[in-house]
Amino acid sequence: MALVADTSLASFDQGGNREDLSDVFNLLVQHNHRSVTNAIGIKGEAAKATKHQWVEGELGGMTSALNGALNTTATTANVATGDGVKFRIGTLFKISGNNPEVLQVTSITADALTVVRGYGSTSDPGTNYADASVIEIISHPVQEDADIATTGRFAEIVRATAYNYTQKFFDYTQVSDTQEAVDKAGVDSELTFQVQAKLEKLWRELNRSLIYGIRSADAGGAASYRSMGGIYEFVTAAGGNATDAAAAAVTYKLLRAEMKDAYDDGGNIDLIVCGTTQKAKISDIYVELRRMERKDSGMGYIVETVLTDFGEARLVLDTTLEADKVLFLDSTRLRALPLQNLAMSMEDVARTGLARKKMISGEYTMEIMNATKAFSVLYNLSTA
């Protein structure tokens, strides 16, 4: 973003000891459209402690998979380990493929379902369903006089506490009285210009931390370091939806598979973040989704949205992201936020000579709910 002295980003009061620059900083974020920070926003209630904690419920997906083949006329379907809790007596489901057969659950023992084949107007296809075939849960109808004794019940929603640390973002500027007094080409105030430049630098640092930050807090009080974890660290934790592309080129199938992984786990991907390399490659493969841009001097296309069976996601270009990676985000479960009373601000520093000094700082963190379920990462893509 170009630095222009005579803009709203530079319109702050230079008097006083401490000045709130949070609105100026947020406006800077809004102006930088090609960034994760802009896409998710600095929003919501501020953090109240340096170890920011939040409560998240376990997501319940509406899909599973066969654990072993289901032969024609067979009435016991084994599902993926641990997925039996997704079903109850009466549940209707179908198995992937072109066959319209619907099956109904009549009893459940752990991950083994006793089923009725050909529910309602549907019929047994007379062919076998292969091991690992995808199961799509339709609904959980109950009888008119149903109660827990006859239908069973789902397991209680598991509640967990997740956390991240806040991180200080700090810089300092010093402008001599002479620098401030003399005429400057295109700049009314050297101090205003320098403060604005430092704010942009701090925004870039926050944006990079949102992606690649590492959660850590050294013991030792005021002299210790504390840093916030970023999206990549949270999403690629054990059990997360992270796929090694093995140097393959990005394809529609790869993008759809990542959105499906999150969808199967209860997420709803609405943002896909990539750098310039993968953005160009996605534009090349998404011919059917491109928006033509006509100009007097030429023409081209820009892919703005990825459409799949598992939702619609806006493409976000962020040059911070490494060339081989693509992030899949659920913006409803992700936000940046300041520590209370420590959003971006500026303070005077005591003069020790013929110069004015300003300290610029803010403390921020990131909240990401159900990181290993509602999000996904595709890495090690071809960059050639």
Q: What would you say this structure looks like, in words?
A:
The protein is an alpha+beta fold and 384 residues long. It has two domains: 8-57 and 162-379, phage-related protein like fold (Alpha-Beta Complex), CATH 3.90.1690; 63-156. It has eight helices and 23 strands. The protein has helices at 22-31, 36-40, 148-151, 177-181, 190-212, 231-235, 252-264, 276-285; strands at residues 18-20, 51-57, 63-65, 76-78, 92-95, 102-109, 112-116, 134-139, 159-165, 167-176, 216-217, 226-227, 242-244, 271-274, 291-295, 298-302, 305-308, 311-317, 326-329, 334-338, 345-349, 355-368, 376-379. It has a six-stranded antiparallel beta sheet, with no helix packed on it. The protein has a six-stranded mixed beta sheet with strand order 13-23-19-14-18-17. Strands 1, 10, 20, 21 and 22 form a five-stranded antiparallel beta sheet that branches. The radius of gyration is 27 Å and the shape is elongated. 29% of the residues are buried. Mean pLDDT is 86; it is low at 1-16.
What characteristics describe this protein?
alpha+beta, 6-stranded antiparallel sheet, disordered N terminus, 384 residues, 2 domains, elongated, phage-related protein like fold, 6-stranded mixed sheet
Spans of at least 5 consecutive residues whose pLDDT stays below 50 are 1-16
Q: How many domain regions?
A: 2
Evaluate the radius of gyration.
27 Å
- Per CATH, the architecture of the largest domain is Alpha-Beta Complex
Measured between the Cα atoms of the first and last residue, the distance is 28 Å
The CATH class designation of the largest domain is Alpha Beta
Shape: elongated
Helix content: 10-25%
Biggest sheet strand line-up = 3-8-5-6-7-4
Number of DSSP strand runs? 23
Treating each run of at least 4 consecutive H or I residues as one helix, how many helices?
8
Strand content: 25-35%
CATH-assigned fold name of the largest domain: phage-related protein like fold
Q: Name the structural class.
A: alpha+beta
User: Average pLDDT, to the nearest integer?
Assistant: 86
